[in-house]
Each structure stands twice: as structure tokens, then as C-alpha cells.
Amino acid sequence: MPDEKKLFKVTIDNITIEVEPGTSILQAARKIGGDVAPPAMCYYTPLKGSGGKCRTCLVEVAAGSTADPRPMPKLVASCRTNVMDGMIVKNITSEKVIDARNGVVEFLLINHPLDCPICDQAGECHLQDLSYEHGKEGTRYEFKRRTFEKVDLGPFIQLHMTRCILCYRCVYTADQVSKKREHGVLDRGDHSQIATYIKNSLDNDFIGNVIDVCPVGALTDRTFRFKNRVWFLKPMDAHRDCPKCSGKVTLWNRGDEVYRVTARKDQWGEVHDWICNECRFEKKETKDWVIEGPTKINRHSVISQGHYVGTVKPREVLTEVMNGQAPRLLMDIHTVSEVNQPQIELSELPGPATGDVFENKNPKEK
Amino acid sequence: MGKKLLIDRVGIEGIRYFDTYRKHGGYASVEKAFKMAPADIVEEIKKSGLRGRGGAGFPTGMKWSFLAKPEGVPRYLVCNADESEPGTFKDRYLMEFIPHLLIEGLVVSSFALGSNRTFIYIRGEYAWIVDILEQAIEEARQNGFLGNNILNSGFDCEIYVQRGAGAYICGEETALLESLEGKRGNPRIKPPFPAVKGLWDSPTVVNNVETLAAVVPIINMGGDAYSQIGIGKSTGTKLISACGNINRPGVYEIDMTISVEEFVYSDEYCGGIPNGKKLKACIPGGSSVPILPANLLFKTAKGEKRMMTYESLADGGFQTGSMMGSGGFIVLDEDQCVVRHTLTLARFYRHESCGQCSPCREGTGWMEKILNNIEYGRGKMNDIDLLWDIQRRIEGNTICPLGDAAAWPVAAAIRHFRDEFEWHVLNPEESQKRNYGLANYAEPREVVAS
Ligand SMILES: Cc1cc2nc3c(=O)[nH]c(=O)nc-3n(C[C@H](O)[C@H](O)[C@H](O)COP(=O)(O)O)c2cc1C
Ligand code: SF4
Ligand code: SF4
Ligand code: FES
Predict the structure, then answer these.
(1) Helices (H), B66-208
(2) Minimal CA–CA distance to B123: which of B167, B182, B180, B183?
(3) Higher pLDDT pick, B442 / A279
(4) How confident is the model at residue B62 (pLDDT cuts 50, 70, 90)?
(5) What ligand is nearest to the CA atom of residue A25?
(6) Residue ranges of E strands in B223-354
(7) Domains of chain B: which residue ranges?
(8) Which of A134, A224, A246, A319 is deepest in the core (most CB within 10 A)?
(9) CATH topology agreement for domains B18-228 and B240-332
(10) A29 Cβ below 6 A of ligand 4
């Protein structure tokens, strides 16, 4: 019988759990779950070497360990700091952490185009989630935002560098999952960018996974571009016999139509079974797949709305406030709103979009 | 005259060449050290109290004793010659005028640490110094101080010079190692520290040029004798590169017993402020350290004389003190504009950030833009508080100290010269025509001298 492994006791936001030595603070906090788990924009469990960069997961270590209970002088990146026995960590119970995290979110947003209305990632974007939780209304940034031209990196992937948060996940993915890395980070500082060195196309097998790891809408699926909003689609687990990969995917359907295929993600948005380009880009009919059933989604509220785990049917508020009368006309905001128009390139505006933008650019209004 | 141990011989004609250098006592420390056990050399360095001259001032002997020594894994010594901090140009002087001192220090240190392959990572712009160093290495090899079986000790050592490609961040030790391995120069996330996992995953010591050169006099005179020079934990001599509004800019070797006032006004060193101008402020340790107004430069907040030592320069913490840093001593007279000066530094850090972590990548650019507005008469009063807020949220929240180095100069400028920032905001037109001048920071010379 193997020796019983000694577990480390760690206390995060006053909740104590036991984890194996070598566990990071982030993973320990995820075991507790809920708000105790720090947001992680760059760390990605399956990608070796990832993490440490975005600084959203900073936490305070109030006591290093039982053996050395001194607090750590600086906030640490929970994704890259391992727990020690007797460690005491403060995440949401630390004012310093909340303040620093608000700062990080502000930094990530100052140069972000905020073009969610025309971004395919909207609804499953980690930056959106983060901003809802930690962002402020309005901005203190009064300068022209950094912009880049959109680039098609080959037939499948579009790069919208303006939206990139430089988490490096796609770089690690190309290194570790696809056969060959043909893109990377060029230049440095606030002028660094994800790019291929001399226009290259990204089309080797498995490179499509960069779309799944990208926490924002910087890398999107060209075969899905502007086809639909993710929250109108029904995610279903499905599989096929694939000679190249596990063939385990999520299909995003509307009616019987397959709009896109992605790898399956866990509640933290992490992929464990990488899928090949063929499954992702070329198998877009229901008959290509064995459907297992609806995907369990419980974190990204927008997508889970209506159909999935643990959700409650909303009250019929309208009839209630209208004294029992049913409303005569209900319109889908996305079909009537001008904000949902792909032809207006929000990311090219120097400041936040206002009503004027839509009125001036939209011929119907004139 | 203070004691000189490093650059006392630079005036000798031909000291750049092996024969002359050897005639003047060169490579004696190698002969002495190779009769000692490596652990005893480390012990001597510990006794000497030598602290890293690259900026952080970490005790060198202690760093060396942390080096992991697993069986069958090579160990590396890497000399950090990337010197790119604005205001710092001491390593350049040492390598250019007395290159064999560095090579000698590297041979001794490599022996002490067991590094058979030692690297000098040199700033790309120092192109001509690469030739000087390579010539010195070749001379040392031909004379049996490098190569196989040095002085019949059975110890082999080769030194390689690698040029950087023009990035300040590659002076940060782990970014340097990445670059040396041929990768993008992004700082690594620590731990693991280089002493455990450094170059090609092997235990590595990274030291500054001056640190490694100081090993030579320490071995020659003994660690105890070296530790007698200086005050307290600031032992030995230190190279200071002085620039700005002074009569005699240049590289000076000081033993750490003189006062800041003496350094600025003595004709042996800076020789005072030219053109009868008054002193306004000084950055005593390279662009990353906090700027000090004249009234805090010569005396600490406690009223004690400020000395050119690690402890005294840092006296008062960041509230009223600064740091020895890398020894880049920048002097500003009454005609200099602190806002403009801070903008220049902010531009530098924005340009040099590697861009890995969000606070440094985005924050440095933001600070530069705000400072640019203030400097050019477009600033608002709450911009000053905003600047403060931005630097506060960069500091301490990044992977490497470049984030701090970008935050500190802004913080110190606002802390000590807030009135000048406010004057810029309130007088947008006038501030384009003239500088603010001295204001509250009258030259304190008389006060100190009394
Ligand atoms: C942004 C940055 C730039 C640096 N540049 C240099 C440099 O040019 N030369 C240097 O010796 N140390 C530099 N350092 C310090 C090194 O990281 C390291 O501490 C030093 O080389 C250790 O040598 P020492 O112990 O001999 O001082 C830099 C640090 C940072 C954060
Ligand atoms: S493109 Fe996406 S995955 Fe790649 S670095 Fe940018 S945000 Fe990260
Ligand atoms: S602090 Fe700046 S330079 Fe250092 S790792 Fe982060 S982004 Fe790069
Ligand atoms: S998730 Fe830890 S720093 Fe990005």
C-alpha cells in the first residue's frame, strides 16, 4: 500500500481545506469554488508555463506557512504560487486585493475597444465577466485607444489584435498542441502584438484550439463569424470517430443547424481534450455527429439562460406589472437594435461608441 | 583621496593589453585563488561584505552560497553587462578601459562557483566593447588563464561574449537568461530562482560587471581587509557615474565614506554646479530610484549628514530617502523642469516594458500620456491624483521590478514636487515659456555647511 500522502492545510478567505503538496493557491481556491476562486485571464491548466502575466489572480498571503508564518510582502499571483502547509490566503476578504484587481481590470480595459455588440466572443468572454464584477462605470482614460487592423490568419482564424489582452495562451497552445508554432508576440510593451512573422497563415492541424483558449474575442472562428450570438445557440455534447483527436466536442446548434464546433470546456473555461481542425471547421452537419445531450453550463450566465443547470424560470413580470394583461408585442432587442450591426467597426472608434455613431453611419436613419 | 581598487590603473598606458596589465599586478588573484578551495573563496566574498553593484545591493557571498550543486548538472556564471539604465555608465568605463580586470574577476569567480562556461551578456549598443573584451579573452587564453587546465589546476573555463539586441529589460536577470537562450527577453516568473534553475534549467549565478571585478581586490587583500573600507554594511569601493548639471561629469570610484555633499562639490568628484546655478534635485542611483529635492539630498529628514552609502541614501525610506541603485548619479540644477524630466523617464519605461503583465504594459503608457498632457499645458488638476493612483497600482503588482522602476520616479516626483505639477496645470501658457525654477527647494548648501 502506498504511504498516505501528507496533505497541506490552507485557509482561503477563512475557509480551510486540505490539498496535495504542489497545488497552486488558485487550484486550491477553485476547489472551494464560488467567489473564493480568483479570476484567471492568462493561466490555463492544460498549458505548461501559462499564467503569471495578467495579474487578475493576485491574492494576499497573510501567513506563509505554519513553519514560517510571516506574511508575504507583496500580493502574489495565485496561479503560479504553490500552497504551503498552514498558509493563510486572503482573496475577496482583502481590501488590497480588491483594489489591485480593480486596477488590473482598469488597465486591461483602457485600450480595449469595448466593441462587445459586434464581437463574436460576447457572452462567453472572460473580460466581460471580469468587467461586470470589478469594472467601474465610465473610464478615466481620455486618450485615443490603441488600434490594429483585423487580420485573417489563414482560412479559419481571424485575429482582432485590438481586443487581445496578451495572455500568451494562444502562443503556448501553438507550441504545445499544434505541430508547429507560426505566430507569436512581436515587439514589446504596449506596442507588442500577436502576429505571424511575415504574413503567414495558421492552418496546421489543431491550431484551431487557439480560438478556444483565447479569453477574449481576439481570435475568432472565421467559419462562424457573425453567424449568430452564442446565447441564441444550444450547446450539445457530441462525438465522432476521429482518427486525429478524441472527437469529443460541443456543437452549437440553432434548430438542426450546426453553427459552430468547439472543444468541451469545464466550468473555468478550460479545454482538456484538444480537437483537430477537421472536427472544428469541416464537420458542420448534425449527421456527422453522435449527439450525447445538452452541455452542462453553469458559469457563464448569458449562455445558460433559459435551458440549463440550476436555473429558475423567470417570473412573468410583464403580466404582473400590467395587471394581468399580456403584452401585445414583444420584440427581440437584437433584431431591432442598431447596436448589433457588424458593418459598424466599433473597434476603430477612438472613444466609446455613442448613439451618434449609429445614427450617422446607418443609412436607414437618415 | 579615497581608496581606489578598481579603476586606479586606468591611466596607465596600454593597461588594456595583457602584458601591461600583468606587469601591474594583473591576474595575481587568479594565482592566489587557485591555491584555495572554491568554498573558501566564497567564504572570503562573504567576509568582504560585497553587495551586488547591479542595483539591488544583494550580498554577493550569500548569493553564491545559494547556488545549488546537484551532481552531473553544469553550473553557470553569467556576467550582466547589459547596463541600460539611464544615467548609469560605469560598467562601460570599466570594460572599455581595464577589460582584464573583469576577465580576471570572471576566472576567479568561475573557479569559485564551478562554472566551466561563463557568459558575458553585453548591451547591444556597446558594440565596440565586444571587440575589446574578446581580445582580452583571447590574450588571457594564450597566457594560460583561460582554456583547459588553467594554471595546472585541472579546472577548465571558457568565457563567451553575447550581445543583446537593444532591450533594457534584458538587464533583468531572468529576461537576460531567456535572451541568452535565444528566446524573447521576457522576465521569468520566480520562483524558481536562477540559483536553482537558471540558464538552460541549470543552477546559475548572475552578477553585475562591477561586482565581479570587485572580486579581484577582495581576493588580493582578503575579505576582512576589504570589509574595513566603508561604513557599516556598505563595504568597499563603488563606481559612480555622475552626469547632469555638474562641472565634472564622469565615472568616479568612491570608498563609501564620503558625504553626498562632498561628492557633489569636491573638485575630486563632480566639482559643483556650473554657471553659478543652484542645485534643485538629484537622482542618486540611476533613473529607477526616487528623485530627491536638494533639501533632502545632503541631509536626511533626521538632520543627519547624508553619506554615499547604501544605508544613508535609503534613509527615510521612500518618504524622504532614495537608493544607491546602480550608481547613476544625475544632478538637476534650477533650470530643469521636473515635469519634463519625469515625462522623459516615463517615456523610457513605457518603451522598455516587455509587455507581459497588464499593469506595467498598460500603466506605463497611460502615465506617459498624462505626463505629456501636463508638460504641454493640457493637464488637469485631477491628472496628478490619477498619476498617483496609476503608479500605486503598478508598484508591487508586476512580475519583475521594471514595473516598480517605472512607478517610483513618478511617485517621488509628485511627492516632492507636487507644487511644480500644479503650477504647470494652472499656468498652461506660462509653463510653455519658462521653467518653474527652485521654489521651495532653495539650495541647502549653507545650511549644511554651518
Ligand atoms: C529592468 C531591470 C534592468 C536591469 N538592468 C541591469 C543591468 O543593466 N545591469 C545589471 O548588472 N543589473 C541589472 N538589473 C539587476 C539584475 O536583475 C540583477 O539583479 C543583477 O544583475 C544582479 O547582479 P548583482 O547582484 O551583482 O548586482 C536590472 C534589473 C531590472 C529589474
Ligand atoms: S490572441 Fe487571445 S489567446 Fe492570444 S494572447 Fe491575445 S488574448 Fe490571449
Ligand atoms: S513588470 Fe513590465 S517589464 Fe517586468 S515582466 Fe511585467 S511587463 Fe515585463
Ligand atoms: S491568471 Fe494568474 S496572473 Fe493571470
Answers:
(1) 90-97, 99-113, 127-142, 173-180
(2) B167
(3) A279
(4) very high
(5) 4
(6) 230-231, 234-235, 237-244, 250-255, 279-283, 292-293, 328-333
(7) 18-228, 240-332, 338-440
(8) A224
(9) no
(10) no
**Ligand nearest, relative to CA of residue B288:** 1
Quote the ligand 3 centre to B186 CA distance (angstroms). 8
Q: How far apart are CA A142 and CA A153, in angstroms?
A: 32
ipTM: 0.92
Identify the residue among B184, B382, B397, B400 best suited for mutation to test binding to A, counting A beta carbons within 10 A and taking the highest.
B397
- Report the atom number in ligand 2 closest to the C-alpha of A169: 3
C-alpha cell at A311: 436555473
* A244 min Cα distance to partner chain B (Å): 31
Contact A36, A52 (CB under 8 A): no
Closest CA to B336 of B390, B290, B384, B274: B274
State the pLDDT at residue A2: 56
Q: Which residue has the higher pLDDT, A228 or B392?
A: B392
Question: Chain A: nearest CA to B110, how far in angstroms?
Answer: 31
Of A102, A72, A105, A104, give the one whose Cα is nearest residue A89.
A72
- The pLDDT-based confidence of B3 (bands split at 50, 70, 90) is confident
CATH class of the domain at B240-332: alpha beta
Closest residue by Cα to residue B81 from B180, B149, B194: B180
Q: Chain B residue with minimal CA distance to A189?
A: B355
What CATH number was assigned to the domain covering residues B338-440? 1.20.1440.230
Residue of B nearest to A81 (CA): B191
Amino acid found at A151: V
Cβ atoms of B18 and B92 closer than 8 Å: no
Partner-chain residue, chosen from B352, B357, B396, that has the shortest CB–CB distance to A53: B357
The listed CATH number (3.40.50.11540, 3.30.540.10, 3.20.20.70, 2.60.120.260) that belongs to domain B18-228: 3.40.50.11540
- Rounded CA-CA distance B307/B160 in Å is 38
Q: Do A185 and B167 touch (CB under 8 A)?
A: no
pLDDT tens, residue by residue, A102-118: 999 999 999 999 888 88
Residues in chain B closer than 8 A to A100 (CB atoms)? 393, 397
How many angstroms separate the alpha carbon of residue A53 from the centre of ligand 3?
9
**Minimal Cα distance from B404: which residue of A?**
A74
The position carrying cell 558625504 is: B259
- B446 pLDDT more than 60: no
What domains are there in chain A, each with its CATH number? 8-106 (3.10.20.740), 111-304 (no CATH), 318-348 (no CATH)
Please give the DSSP secondary-structure letter assigned to residue A253.
Answer: E
